[in-house]
Design brief:
Layout lengths: L1 H8 L3 E4 L10 H16 L5 E4 L4 H9 L4 E5 L2 H4 L2 H5 L16 H11 L6 E3 L8 H4 L14 H11 L6 H13 L10 E2 L3 E2 L4 E3 L2 E3 L7 E2 L2 E2 L1
Parallel strand pairs: 1-2, 2-3, 3-4
Antiparallel strand pairs: 5-10, 6-9, 7-8
């Protein structure tokens, strides 16, 4: 079988950890019970990444699972909950999969990301769908965050008083999990605000970025 061969050669299995048959807000916990637990049991040395987790259940499961299973976390799941997307009108540029969850889940993700636990690391899941495909009757899922993701992570870690743990989360833990050498290049962040453009050019179209028109507290210099 493919998974057995992947385990044998040390290939990573990266999983968008949701089923498609459950309620959209419950798809990740159901996936853990129906898919992840049997996978971890049957392939005990297969390296696995639960990509862009979004629930307290996923945080708790990853923490309890063997060391071959780790998880990535997006910047937008750290700063928004489902109310931000749905209350007072639908905000299509916050619609993503896994979908934003309740505040209790956001808080669990923040705690995990800033904990210094090497089981959790950066995974932006940045998705630049053009504006017209987001602002439509059946909009695409995905948040474009590439322009400001590091800066947002910095704000989250600063708010939690854990800036000293930012570099490992962004640059070290993921590389270690993948068996890659840690990058020796650096970037410098400065507490200097800037305003995100309303749109970016995207071929002949435009893409509406995360936090369009809003101020970001940190800058890459």
């Amino acid at each position: 079988p493919v998974l057995a061969e992947m385990e044998k050669v040390g290939m990573m299995l990266c999983i968008h950890s949701e089923v498609t048959h459950a309620d959209i807000f419950e798809r990740e916990p159901v996936f853990i019970e129906e898919i992840m637990k049997p996978l971890v049991r049957d392939f005990p040395t297969l390296k696995m990444t639960m990509e862009h987790i979004s629930t307290r259940e996923a945080v708790e499961y990853v923490m309890s699972a063997p060391s071959n299973l780790k998880a990535s976390i997006t910047c937008h799941h750290l700063i928004y909950n489902r109310n931000d997307m749905l209350v007072g009108g639908i905000r299509p540029h916050l619609y993503c999969l896994p979908i934003l969850k309740a505040e209790v889940h956001r808080l669990a993700l923040v705690k995990a990301a800033t904990s210094g636990n090497p089981k959790f690391f950066l995974g932006t899941d940045s998705a630049p769908h053009v504006t017209e495909t987001k602002e439509s009757a059946c909009g695409c899922a995905g948040v474009f965050s590439a322009h400001c993701c590091i800066e947002i992570y910095a704000s989250v870690f600063e708010k939690e008083g854990k800036l000293d743990r930012l570099e490992d989360f962004c640059s070290s833990f993921g590389a270690d999990h993948y068996g890659l050498a840690r990058n020796t290049h650096t970037l410098t962040l400065k507490k200097k605000s800037w305003t995100v453009p309303e749109t970016y050019e995207f071929g002949e179209n435009t893409v509406t970025p995360l936090k369009a028109g809003e101020e970001i507290e940190w800058s890459i210099v």
